[in-house]
Amino acid sequence: MERPQLALHQLHAFTVLAEELHFGRAAVRLGIAQPPLSQQIRRLEEKVGHPLFERRPGGVVLTSAGRELLPAARRALGEVADGLEAARRAGGGEAGLIRVGFAASLALTILPGMLRAYRERHPAVEVRISEMTTAPQVAALLGRSIDVGLLREPPDVPGLVAEAVLSEPFVAVLPVGHDLAGQRVVPVAALAAEPFVLLGPEAGPTVHERIVGVCRAAGFEPRIGQHAVEWQTVCALVEAGLGVSIAPASVRRVRLKGVAYRRIEPADARTVVAMCRREGETDPLVVRFVEVARACMP
Amino acid sequence: MERPQLALHQLHAFTVLAEELHFGRAAVRLGIAQPPLSQQIRRLEEKVGHPLFERRPGGVVLTSAGRELLPAARRALGEVADGLEAARRAGGGEAGLIRVGFAASLALTILPGMLRAYRERHPAVEVRISEMTTAPQVAALLGRSIDVGLLREPPDVPGLVAEAVLSEPFVAVLPVGHDLAGQRVVPVAALAAEPFVLLGPEAGPTVHERIVGVCRAAGFEPRIGQHAVEWQTVCALVEAGLGVSIAPASVRRVRLKGVAYRRIEPADARTVVAMCRREGETDPLVVRFVEVARACMP
DNA sequence: ACGCTCCATACGCGCAGAGATATCACACCC
DNA sequence: GGGTGTGATATCTCTGCGCGTATGGAGCGT
User: Fold this and answer.
1) A173 to each of A211, A255, B135, how far by Cα in Å?
2) Which nucleotide does the CA of A42 lie closest to, via C1'?
């Protein structure tokens, strides 16, 4: 692309004159005197290389060159005005695109509410969400292919800041027929002999490790009977009798007839959902998103 | 539309920087030093009201405002470049739109050849033709709703210039069975008793009057048996035996089995086809059209 | 012939801003 | 801790040009 040679205000003057077909009236509409308008048009004609108007008694008419230029000039002015407006909206955090990464296990939890709340307040912003595990989210944040990351167990990475959005206890997931389902609180150690249904580590290493850690703290290594990639599946497999599970409390939302959720003992094991973003991020879209997300915390 | 506030060269600098994401390289591509580029971008950001780039070590990245502005800036620059190019082509007579009025009776004659020749030489020019009789053509030329008029019997109107494109004699149109069809040359006076098939005066007053004039010169007032609005119809009606006619020689192109065309006596009556345009017309499209049309004369 | 309308021209003022050079501030890397 | 690369700032020049007022000149109508 060459350096632009036309000035926008000249194109504007041109379009106004093309509408009025009269230098005097066009100058009034432009808020300037008539001679300067003559100059603008003359300069424009010099740059184009051909007359744009034919001067005739009583007014002017467009030449064929002018007729060709007019629609393009209008479109260009419209593009600039629209682009400016869009940029201002985006700069004010009212419109644009924000890219959010989230851990699969949050699709059941806070993600839907946050997105709903944000859409309500900023309907002109397009939110592009992608399911990613922790490590890819960190990489994507640093590589600027996402703007906000929602994940479990905040990582401590230079250049990123994380804040806790939700802290939830773990619950035991049991088939309703199971002996322990009769109790209000289940000691973790009581699950030592049971086969476990867990999310595979590839789906979200941190949650997986956290749960295994809970078991180890209770003095046993969980026996993995079955892997799954979504919490819904985990619950379904528990219902089918393939084992028991320990899961963040929000899986209670998965309401299955054959599954019971019970508090566990010790109760101090919790999993933290964090919202990550780049350090020093000033993009208003991101700032607004973070604000809204914060307000969604229970 | 408000007065445009952005300068095109700033938008251009912006798009280049958005491609390079590096002030130094962008400045090189723009052929300026780096500090001026910083200024341009800063000015642009001031006008937008928000930062367009985020300055980070190793380069810059677009903000959301910048991402919104970029496509619009590209489109606007493209529109301006295209419009300028189109205007230059039109100014050079290579492209654009030319509006031509023509008398119905010429659709059979020179019009097709002229249009073909013009299209060949100026394929990018759109030719919009409209069938009009003489008076509307004159009005349309003066009112600038057509650029060129093709009509019979050049009118002498101030502000318009006409030049003869074709001069053709009249011929008698006779049914093949008619007595006079046996002769090579038909005296007009011999048609005095015949019913005439003629174009209605509303279709083209000048030709009509011209033909009636030929009859009057031969000493009789033609008896109009039938009106028609196209020469093809006139010939068909003659073939059907509804009368005879006098017509410009180019109706010979209407080849009907039952119709004969014969020279008339006196032979000095001719009809002139003229090409009209506004006086002092400088529009290159029109000038080129006139040149090509002139070259088409037989 | 005169005046009116409309556009062009001439001239001057003033400023925004585009450009250059030189220098600074900061982050990062070895 | 110095070197390197990045962009920002400071300062200056200069010119392009946007705007105004005043005037000229062509065409048209009365």
Assistant:
1) 12, 11, 94
2) C8
pLDDT computed for residue B2 by the predictor: 58
CB proximity A198 to B under 8 Å: no
Cβ separation A1–B9 shorter than 8 A:
no
- The reply to whether the CB atom of residue A4 sits less than 7 A from any atom in nucleic acid chain D is no
State residue A78 phi and psi, 5-degree precision. Answer: -65, -40
CATH 3.40.190.10 domain extents, chain A = 95-164+275-295
pLDDT attached to residue B59: 75
Q: CATH 1.10.10.10 in chain B: give the residue spans.
A: 8-91
Rounded CA–C1' distance between B214 and D17, in angstroms: 67
Radius of gyration of chain B (CA): 32
Q: What is the CATH number of domain B96-164+273-295?
A: 3.40.190.10
CATH 3.40.190.10 domain locations along chain B: 96-164+273-295, 166-271
pLDDT bucket at A221, cuts 50 / 70 / 90: very high
Compute CA distances A164 → A161, A167, A213, A295, B77, whole Å: 10, 7, 20, 12, 46
pLDDT at B69: 86
Nearest nucleotide relative to B58: CA against C1' = D6
Q: Which two tokens stand for residue A293?
A: 């997300």
Mean pLDDT, range A227-242, rounded to an integer: 87
Which chain A residues contact residue B5 at CB under 8 A?
A: 84
The encoded tokens of residue B40 equal 């341009």
What pLDDT is recorded for position B275? 93
Second CATH level (architecture) for the domain A95-164+275-295 = 3-Layer(aba) Sandwich (3.40)
Give me the pLDDT at residue B148, please: 92
Q: Which of A73, A91, A144 sits opposite B50 (nearest CB)?
A: A91
Burial (Cβ within 10 Å: 0-12, 13-18, ≥19) of residue B33: exposed
User: CA B46 – C1' C28 distance (Å)?
Assistant: 30
Count Cβ atoms within 10 A of the Cβ of residue A174 and give its class: 0-12 exposed, 13-18 middle, 19 or more buried.
buried
How many Å apart are CA A12 and CA A18, to the nearest integer?
10
Please report the pLDDT score of residue A278 as a whole number: 86
Residue whose CA lies closest to nucleotide C18 C1': B36
For strand C, the positions having any atom within 7 A of a protein Cβ are 5-11, 17-22, 27-28
Walk along chain B (298 residues) in steps of 10 and give the mean pLDDT of each run: 74 86 84 84 83 80 85 87 84 79 83 88 85 85 87 84 90 92 92 90 75 92 87 89 91 89 89 88 84 83
- Interatomic CA distance for residues A217 and A209, integer angstroms: 12
Domain A165-271: state its class.
alpha beta
Q: In the structure, what pLDDT confidence band is assigned to residue A40 with cuts at 50, 70 and 90? A: confident
* Ranges in chain A annotated CATH 3.40.190.290: 165-271
Pick the CATH number of A8-91 from 3.10.180.10, 3.30.365.10, 3.60.40.10, 1.10.10.10: 1.10.10.10
Share of chain A above pLDDT 90, in %: 19
Q: What is the pLDDT of residues A149-195, one digit of tens each?
A: 999 888 888 888 888 998 899 999 999 989 999 899 999 999 999 99
Residue A116 beta carbon within 7 A of nucleic strand D = no
Asked if CATH classification 3.40.50.12280 holds for the domain at B166-271, the reply, yes or no, is: no
Token pair listed for A278: 């780049």
